Amino acid sequence: MKTIGGLLLAAGRSSRMPEGCHKLLAEFNGVPLVRRSAETMLRSDLRSVTVVTGHRSPEIQMALNGLPVFTTYNKNFAEGMGTSLACGFRHPSLASCDGVLVMLADMPEITEAHIAELLSAFRSGQDALVRGADGEKPGHPVIVPSAIFSQMKKLDGDHGGKEALQRREVPVTMINIGKAALKDIDTVQDLLAAGGELCSRSE
After folding, report:
1. What would the pLDDT profile of 64-81 be if each residue is shown by its tens digit?
2. Which of 107, 149, 176, 184 could serve as a FRET partner for 160 with CA atoms 20 to 30 Å apart?
3. What share of the chain is helix, strand, coil (3-state, %, to 5)?
4. Distance of CA 119 to the CA centre of its chain
5. In this predicted structure, which of 54-63, 113-122, 134-143, 194-203 has the lowest mean pLDDT?
C-alpha cells in the first residue's frame, strides 16, 4: 500500500487578523486551531505528520505540545507559502513517502473523513495528484505524488505550489469533498462564522 505523509502548513503571518492576534491560536471549543488541524491529521491514516512553523513559532509549537508530530521552522516564512512548502518537503520524515498530503492549518471544516476520501483516491490511482474540491472548484487538501517532490523542494516566494502543478508531469484527480475544501480562516468574520473564539491580543 502506498505510504502517505502529512504536511501541515502553519507558518503564515495571519496578516488579515487584528494586530496581536494569530488565527491559528484562536480556539475552537477550547482547542487552538493549529492543534485541532494537527489532531485531525493524526486521526487519519497518514504515516506521519510534519508541521511547518514560522510566524510566532514558539507559541505554535506550544499549542502542539504533546502531539506526536515533527516540526520544522521556516526562517523565510515572510517571503510566502512557497518557502514553507519547500521547507516541509525537505524534511526527512517525508523523504520515502509515495505521496504527501498538504493541508493548510486554517481550514477548520476539514475532517478525517475528507482526508480518508483523498487517501483512498490516491492509493487507487496511478501517480496522480489528488486534490480536494468543492464541485469543480479546486481547493485543499492536496496529495502530491513523489514524482514532483523535487519541484516542491525548490519553490520560493508566494506562488505556493501553483507553478509546480502547472508544470506537472502527472494527472490531477479532483475529489469533491464539498464546501470544506474552500473554507479557510482569513478574517475575524471568518473565524466567528466557523465557530471559533478570537484570541487575546498579545502584550
Report:
1. 999 999 999 999 999 999
2. 176
3. 35, 25, 40
4. 15
5. 194-203
Q: Would you state the cell numbers that stand for residue 147, as one nine-digit string? A: 514524482
As a dihedral over the C-alpha atoms of residue 122, residue 126, residue 127, residue 133, rounded to 10 degrees, the angle is -40
C-alpha separations of 122 from 1, 44, 53, 85, 115 in Å: 10, 14, 26, 20, 11
Helix or strand (DSSP H, E) at 61: helix 57-63
Q: Which residue has the cell 478525517?
A: 112
pLDDT tier at 58 (50, 70, 90 boundaries)? very high
Closest CA to 78 of 4, 169, 15, 167: 15
Residue with cell 481547493: 139
Instruction: Compute the distance between CA of residue 165 and CA of residue 9 in angstroms, rounded to an integer.
Output: 18
Calpha distance 51→57 (Å, rounded): 11
